[in-house]
Each structure stands twice: as C-alpha cells, then as structure tokens.
Amino acid sequence: MAALFIALGLEPVVGWLENRKIPRPAGILVSVAVLMGAVVGFFATLIPTIVEQVSEIVRQAPDWVRNFMDSDFFRSLDDQFGVRDRITEELNKFVNDPAAMGGIFGGVVGFGSTLANGLFGTLIVLVLSLYFLAALPAMKKWGYRLAPRSRRKRVAALSEEITRSVGNYVIGQACVALLNATFAFVVMSIVGIPFALLLAFVVVLLAFIPLVGGMIAGIVVTLVSLTEGWQAAAIYAVCYFAYLQFEAYFISPRIMQKAVAVPGAVAVISVIAGGSLLGVLGALIAIPTAAAVLLLVREIYIARQDQH
User: Fold this and answer.
1) Does residue 55 lie within any of the structural domains?
2) Mean pLDDT estimate for the chain
3) How far apart are CA 24 and CA 218, in angstroms?
4) How many separate domains does the chain show?
5) Is the pLDDT at 259 greater than 80, yes or no?
6) 80 lies in some domain
7) Contact criterion met (CB below 8 Å) for 77 and 83
8) Burial grade of 207 (CB within 10 A; 0-12, 13-18, 19 or more)
C-alpha cells in the first residue's frame, strides 16, 4: 500500500516530464532517484548524529556519575540510607546474573533486527514503487477491462479522476511539508537549536501526517530546544505554532483545494479512522481515500438518484 501510494504520488511528476518530451523510463528514474536521494540524505544525516551523540554520552557518563556521587545531595543520602553500598551490591548481582546479561544481549540483537527489517522494508517499498510506476498504465488498462464494455469508458474516467486526485494530494502535502520544514529550519538556525538540519528532516516526515503531524513536530522540536534553555524553546514554540495557524488557514487550503475537495469534518473523521485502522499509513491515505469515496458517491449514487 505504501509503494502504491508513493507511485500514485509520483505519477503526476512522471506525466509532467512526459509532456516535456522526456521518455517515461527516464522520468521514472529521475523521480525515484530524487525520492531515494531524500531517503538517503535523511539517514546520512541521522546515523552520524546518533553515533556522535551516543559517543558523547558514553564519554561524559563517568564524569556525570562521579560528580553526582561527590555531590552533597548524594552524600546525605548515603549517610542516611547507605546508598553507595546498596548500589554496589545490586550491580554485583546484576553482573553475575546470566539471565540479566542475556536480556541485554537479546535487547541489542532485537534492536539490530528491527533496524535491519526497517531498512529492508524501505528498500522493498522503493523497489515496488519503481515497478508500480513503470507498470501503472498497463495495470490501469488491465483493470478497466474487468468492467463490462458498456461501462468501461465511465469506469476509466472515474478511475483516472481518483488516481489524479491521489497524486495531486501527495504532491500538495509534500509542498506543505517542505514549506513547514523550511520555516522550522530557519527559526531553528536563528535561535541556535542544535541539529537543525536533522530536526528539519523529522519535521518533513511528521508534516506529511495530516492534521496532527505539524503539532507533533512542534512538540518534538520544542522539547529538543529545551537543551538550549527555556528562552530558545519559548521563542521557537511561539514562532512555529503561529506558523501552523497561518498554514492551516492560508497555505494548506490554497494548495489542497486544487488537489482534493474534502469537507473539514470528513477529513478529521477519515484521518482518525485511518489512523486507528492502519496507523501512520492509514492517516496518510485517509484524505485521498475519502475524496475517492465522495467522488464515487457523487458521480454514481447521487447521479442515479437524480434520475428517479
């Protein structure tokens, strides 16, 4: 489903390139290369940052522990409750417990397996997106032949309208997410929040989730900015959440009204239902799915009812 959603989102780009006299295979390669470049750029930014921060934590951890154990607070606790001896005793038990050490090893293996599965799943989605893009015209023609010949033209017209709306929605949401992340990156750079580029990637990913993605991104970055002080967090939060209001009332409606025409109440209900059924993917495809259902109801059911 994710690969098909991506393929439908990239189809308008490929069609636009075809209209510019670029062969479809070349247009597909360009579109997928840009998508893969974005994914690779995200992980290329994420992984070194994580390694650097973990190394910094490991390097400073002994100093933190030593400073804490030399503090007056810890000494008062140790005098009253014998905390130092208790910690030493529990550490010795933990180190000498095979089950505990096995649990740590199992957790590390489990994390590595999850990471490998995630990377493998991402690769599969990208490959399937490439195949779907290449075979999309043939797939649609084959699907239209499943309808009766007398209805085939109508089915093809409705299907093309649905796929076009899905593609336009993906492109529109991508534009909204890029504008959101660009604004967040500028504010983070001005305020001096660390890892602004990495956090901008996170904002892009979260901003793809309709309705709640921007709010989650704002909370995440605000929490990270607390490391620079409450002033930096307050400035970023005020600027970003003010932008979210501007985006909700001015930017998003003007972009999305050209892609899908879904009433606000239907959009909220569909996102909640999609998120409950399929998680993040369900929330992503909820609005174009609702638009497709509304189109079918309007063009088939209501049109039939108007004839009686």
Assistant:
1) yes
2) 78
3) 39
4) 1
5) no
6) yes
7) yes
8) buried
**Residue 35 tokens, joined:** 């998508």
Residue 39 tokens read as 């994914």
Determine the average pLDDT of the residues in 236-264.
78
Token couple for 119: 């990377």
What residue numbers bound the domain in which 16 lies?
1-146
